[in-house]
TrEMBL record, chain A:
InterPro entries: DUF8134 (IPR058447)
Top-level taxon of origin: Archaea
Name the UniProt record assigns to this protein: DUF8134 domain-containing protein
DUF8134 domain boundaries: 1-104
Lineage: Archaea, Methanobacteriati, Methanobacteriota, Stenosarchaea group, Halobacteria
Organism expressing this protein natively: Haloquadratum walsbyi (strain DSM 16790 / HBSQ001)
From TrEMBL, chain B:
Keyword Glycoprotein among record annotations: no
The protein, known as: Probable sulfite/nitrite reductase (Ferredoxin)
Boundaries of every Nitrite/sulphite reductase 4Fe-4S domain copy: 137-293, 401-541
GO MF assignments: 4 iron, 4 sulfur cluster binding; heme binding; metal ion binding; oxidoreductase activity
């Protein structure tokens, strides 16, 4: 099933299937050791850069800041919600988000 | 790959949007197909309409572009009448009430709570009176700015108003320039005071002298690629071109076409011409303009007057246009302070009447969100300035009222992280009552912007405040980053962000402590900007020293999670449904 995804209004919104679903200015909890040295990044969402889909999960790259340490910059791909049976369900603000890389199952190359 | 916005623009854009807009207005908001709303809301911007934020479905912000801030006799009254009749909605502001006009940092006017069904009537009334919303937003020539008292200011060396008027006539509704990669902001100034703020525009024409055929001639030097947004502030770059007034339109059109043809249409974050100038350098911009976009030999830059600039410099006289100033015809213009640029509709109407009673009826809008009444005879100045209305819109306000600039904020804007206008009003009032500046400091600029879009131009203020979040006692609260020492002038500089994430209720205490240190440690009559210049960031951070005071902030919570921050029942689920079509 096709999902229409857009970043709107200079990065203020993520639109999913033509509905403005995810807004800037939220605080997210993020596991991202490559963003800053905090165990859990306390991340202010300032600007959505791009949006994509990974299976059923809608993901974004976003500009923002860790309010614990002040690190700023763009994240790796982070999940914002899921599309199930054509309906988008946004993740709760309290959800701990992990980057796409860190969500990959570990593989044993041996 | 072109962006969605470019694809939508390639399908319908420019003038033709109007007929669709009117059809939707006639048939009802609900007839905009849900899967086309993103596209139509983007297109409506070209006609000055911005859909308001989440929780305010079906309501629009309407921006009226007034070139150079010039409002002819009668036009202010028209704006007041429209604000009174149409700019009212389900949310009532506790400070400004129901129905108000916002004067912006680009000399335009914004009205809120506009319903789609009312737009044809509003357009008719605006256009009957020589006003328009065309290209007030969107990817095209925006409202042209400059010294608002062009043509009247006794200090001007060249009247920029005919040039601005010609540019407006040429490039509004011009199909060759109606679909640019991004917004295109132009400034034209004829006064040697820097009041056009050209440095922060995409294209700036600034007064300059050039010897032509043995005669010193006044024209304009050209700068390209300024702008403040997105953590990427740039001052416009000198491209070593001087133009006589008669050639401004050709050169401006050439640069607009250069941007149209070479700007980045695949990444909107990289689309402004400031990034093209970064990539090309000023020399290549000039060479390309010369070789591909104009068919006469460009002059090299003339002798500029930037050393004389005072506007928004933090030092010297006339940092703004507040107060009583002489015009070159012997009458006076009087700049009135409009705190955070917002004026209730009834006050707009009353001021329009006073402007007619005492002056010509004309008013001008400044880039500091203030309003200027022009053409007041010398013997009427005292009586005019004694009018009761001017107690709230003073020509001689407290420096903290005078220096306050604020963007729209979370009241209506999708991008903003924090509430702004009402907060800045509370800050200004508290500072006025509790903080004393050194006696020789009568201007002190504090700009509050809700996000990095920088609509309040925070980077060019004495104190820059920018929306952020932090935690206080473990709870998320609205916060502000604090920057210091920005300003324009011969050597413009952006504020240095020295203290981050200060809870909003600790900002007044922080400013109070900072000013106390400034007053105690400044050298003689050193300006605040000069004082900031000679300290490093760590020292300045220690001067800021946030602390709680008796200031109370009722908007500490996440105002973006409300349908309207000031509503009694403000939850998003309590928001109004889209207005019925009537």
């Amino acid at each position: 099933m096709t999902v229409r995804l857009r970043v709107l209004d200079d990065g203020a919104w993520i639109s999913v299937n033509d509905r403005r679903e995810v807004s800037v200015s939220e605080l997210w909890r993020v596991e991202a050791t490559d963003f800053c040295s905090c165990d859990l990044v306390d991340f202010v969402v300032e600007n959505f850069q791009t949006v994509g889909v990974n299976g059923q999960t809608i993901e974004v790259i976003v500009y923002g800041q860790c309010i614990a340490c002040g690190a700023t910059g763009e994240t790796e791909w982070l999940p914002v919600g899921r599309v199930i049976d054509g309906e988008f369900a946004v993740f709760d603000e309290s959800t701990v988000r992990r980057t796409r890389e860190s969500r990959k199952p570990e593989t044993n190359s041996g | 790959m072109p962006t969605d916005v470019e694809r939508w623009k390639s399908e319908v854009y420019g003038q033709e949007i109007r007929e669709h807009l009117f059809e939707f207005a006639e048939e009802g908001y609900d007839t905009i197909p849900e899967d086309e709303r993103d596209a139509w809301f983007e297109r409506f911007k070209w006609w000055g309409l911005y859909h308001q934020r989440n929780g305010q479905e079906g309501y629009f912000m309407m921006r009226i572009g007034t070139p150079n801030g010039v409002m002819k006799p009668g036009q202010l009254r028209v704006v007041g009448e429209i604000a009174s009749e149409y700019a009212t909605g389900p949310g009532v502001n506790p400070i400004f009430g129901d129905g108000y006009a916002d004067f912006t940092t680009r000399q335009s006017i914004q009205l809120h709570w506009i319903e789609l069904s009312d737009i044809p009537d509003i357009f008719e009334k605006l256009e009957e009176n020589g006003l328009s919303t065309q290209q007030a937003c969107g990817d095209s020539w925006r409202n042209i700015v400059g010294n608002p008292v062009a043509g009247k200011d006794a200090r001007e060396v060249i009247d920029a108003w005919p040039v601005i008027h010609d540019l407006n006539e040429t490039f509004k509704g011009n199909d060759d320039h109606s679909n640019l990669p991004r917004k295109w902001k132009v400034s034209v100034t004829g006064t040697p005071d820097g009041s056009g703020q050209g440095d922060i525009n995409d294209l700036a024409f600034e007064p300059a002298y050039k010897t032509i055929d043995g005669e010193e001639t006044v024209g304009f030097n050209v700068r390209v690629g300024g702008g403040l947004a997105r953590n990427e502030p740039r001052f416009a770059r000198d491209i070593d071109v001087w133009v006589p007034p008669a050639d401004v339109s050709t050169v401006a059109g050439g640069l607009s076409a250069l941007f149209r043809d070479n700007g980045d249409r695949e990444d909107r974050y990289n689309a402004r011409i400031k990034f093209l100038v970064d990539e090309w350098g000023a020399d290549k911009v000039r060479e390309t303009l010369q070789s591909e976009y104009v068919d006469f030999e460009l002059h090299t830059a003339g002798r500029d007057v930037r050393e004389e600039y005072t506007y928004n410099t933090g030092d010297g006289d006339r940092n703004d246009l507040i107060g009583v100033h002489e015009q070159h015809d012997g009458s006076y213009f009087i700049g009135l302070n409009v705190l955070v640029g917002r004026m209730g509709a009834s006050d707009v109407l009353e001021l329009a009447d006073l402007a007619s009673e005492y002056g010509s009826g004309e008013v001008r809008l400044s880039q500091r969100q203030n309003i200027i009444v022009t053409d007041i005879p010398k013997d009427a100045v005292d009586e005019f300035t004694s009018e009761q209305l001017l107690e709230n819109y003073s020509p001689d306000p407290s420096p903290f009222m005078r220096g306050s600039v604020a963007c729209t904020g979370t009241e209506f804007c999708s991008l903003s992280i924090v509430e702004t206008k009402n907060r800045q009003v509370r800050y200004a009032r508290w500072l006025k009552d509790n903080v004393t500046l050194p006696g020789d400091v009568d201007e002190f600029h504090i700009h509050l912007s809700g996000c990095t879009a920088s609509c309040a131009q925070p980077q060019i203020a004495d104190i820059s405040l920018r929306g952020m979040k932090t935690r206080k006692n473990g709870e998320p609260v609205e916060a502000l980053d604090v920057g210091l020492g920005g300003g324009l002038g011969a050597e413009p500089q952006f504020a240095r962000w020295v203290t981050q994430r200060v809870p909003v209720d600790e900002i007044p205490g922080a400013i109070s402590n900072l000013i106390e240190t400034f007053a105690a440690e400044r050298n003689d009559d050193e300006s605040f900007r000069a004082f900031i210049d000679r300290h490093d960031n760590d020292e300045l951070d220690s001067f800021v020293a946030p602390e709680e005071t008796d200031y109370e902030d009722p908007m500490m919570h996440n105002t973006k999670r409300t349908w309207y921050p000031y509503a009694e029942n403000d939850g998003l689920d309590a928001g109004p449904s889209a207005p019925a079509d009537d």
